[in-house]
Amino acid sequence: MTPQDTEYNFAYLDEQTKRMIRRALLKAVAIPGYQVPFASREMPMPYGWGTGGVQVTAATLTPEDTLKVIDQGADDTTNAVSIRKFFQKVAGISVTEKTAEATVIQTRHRIPERDLEAGQILVYQVPIPEPLRFLEPRETETRKMHALAEYGLMHVKLYEDIARHGHIATAYAYPVLVEGRFVMDPSPIPKFDNPKLSNSPALQLFGAGREQRIHAIPPFTRVVSLDFEDHPFERGGADADCAICAASGVYLDEVIVDDAGGRMFVCSDTDHCRERLEAGHRGPMGAPAEGEAA
Amino acid sequence: MTAPLLSVEHVTRRYGPRIGCQDVSFELWPGEVMGIVGESGSGKSTLLSCISGQGDPDEGRVVYDARDLGPVDIREMSEPRRRMLMRTDWAFVHQNPRDGLRMTVSAGANVGERLMAVGARNYANIRAQATDWLGKVEIDEGRVDDRPAAFSGGMQQRLQIARNLVTGPRLVFMDEPTGGLDVSVQARLLDLIRGLVRELGLSAVIVTHDLAVVRLLADRLMVMKDGRRVETGLTDQVLDDPQHPYTQLLVSSVLQA
């Protein structure tokens, strides 16, 4: 289907809206980690399903782009499938499940395992862009705190974690300091992915639809996870290998397999897992060589 | 003689046609405790918010003798500097501890917040200091991880004081610090505040309608009515030999137990 076959403007949004979002994106790229307000539009999906990410993707796409959409690392979950279909329909672009082939990747909750390359754009769906929100409810005050770089409060949250759990128990949406200036919420990615935010050759854009904010990490930007001297940042993650492709050092999902407490760990990044299976890697529960990848 | 720590010069604050406080001037010297008394609506709290940098006076100025800068008008300081001053050199104790505390985080985090705000990044040190300060304000050290919501009103007020004093401020503003507490708890809190003020050599401005509080804590007293200063002097002098009719009324209104 070509865009001309549909009644939609290319990528659903009208040109003026895309222009407005691009201006916000440019500002966000110019001030890494700063939350730029933008006039978020109603999208044909509920808030919380990635309206911010979809708008950023729509404003970013060109007809030559190849789009990949992931949800919790997987290409085949409801949210990922429907957003991919949405853009196929309203933009007529080609889509892929392969990280290496994609030029624009919209993501929820993960950064792909495969190293991103220059020229790729990673678009995050962000529920709450304000890292200070649950500590300071006033928007006027949080803006002032960002403006004056008063970030002591962020450490109060980490202190509270250690006091209660003995270690920094924040496992996702772990606050980071971008280029030594703005503290940013990296959206609910596991903190396992935090090191990948830093110095990435790809452009990283964050869109929060309901909260009407866009922020960005330009390529090769220094991103540091906040911590204490005596409780340094730890990446975390399961201490196991993928049961299907035997990958180690990747982010794993825990899957309960029976009623007797049996469980397996499996790559959260389905594309990465498939790629490894095709390359001949096999874990204890990996399918036989022929047939479909698990 | 050194310079006054805080000079308040002709501070006026209006709310539309109404007067919050008008043409109030006084000086606070290092180590001195100043009491401001008056009935409800007399402009005490308006004055306190103006001189503590929270509200903007319409006229007049407030000059603070900063450690590094010397005397400086607080409205002319840049905002980052003023905010830094407010959380290091100054302290503000609210009447309602819920206004001054973070109710959703533990007592330790409440005390540690100011330390982290000025760059402390060592968990063990922050916690040790917080625990130490809880001890100083007579809160059991085992409660360092409890939330303030689990504390009694008197404990919350003491926690608020610890949270404010942890960075070693020089100037403390207190707005009715004993309001809403019963008399025996009030008495202990006053003892505590008096001890800390003397021990740490703090200067303080205490706003209250309770004459007993100023009798115990304040060196000097200012009486306000309808936004104006009506009388000022040494505390004992004002309370024992009031000159202005309103002060006489105020002093004679206190019930003798």
Brief rundown of the structure:
Chain A: This is Alpha-D-ribose 1-methylphosphonate 5-phosphate C-P lyase. The complex is a heterodimer of chains A (294) and B (257). Chain A has 294 residues and is of the alpha/beta class.
What can you tell me about this protein's structure?
Chain A: Keywords: 4Fe-4S, Iron, Iron-sulfur, Lyase, Metal-binding, S-adenosyl-L-methionine. Chain A: Belongs to the PhnJ family. Chain A: This is Alpha-D-ribose 1-methylphosphonate 5-phosphate C-P lyase. The complex is a heterodimer of chains A (294) and B (257). Chain A is α/β, with parallel strands linked by helices and 294 residues long. Chain A has two domains: 15-131 and 176-225, Rossmann fold; 237-286, no CATH class. Chain A has seven helices and twelve strands. In chain A, helix 1 (15-30) crosses helix 2 (51-60). Chain A is globular, with a radius of gyration of 20 Å. The mean pLDDT of chain A is 92. With 257 residues, chain B is an alpha/beta fold. Chain B has two domains: 1-89 and 174-257, Rossmann fold (3-Layer(aba) Sandwich); 99-168, no CATH class. Chain B has ten helices and ten strands. Chain B has a six-stranded mixed beta sheet with strand order 6-7-8-3-9-10, sandwiched between helices. In chain B, a hairpin with a 2-residue loop joins strand 1 and strand 2. Chain B is globular, with a radius of gyration of 18 Å. The interface between A and B is medium-sized, with 18 and 24 residues.
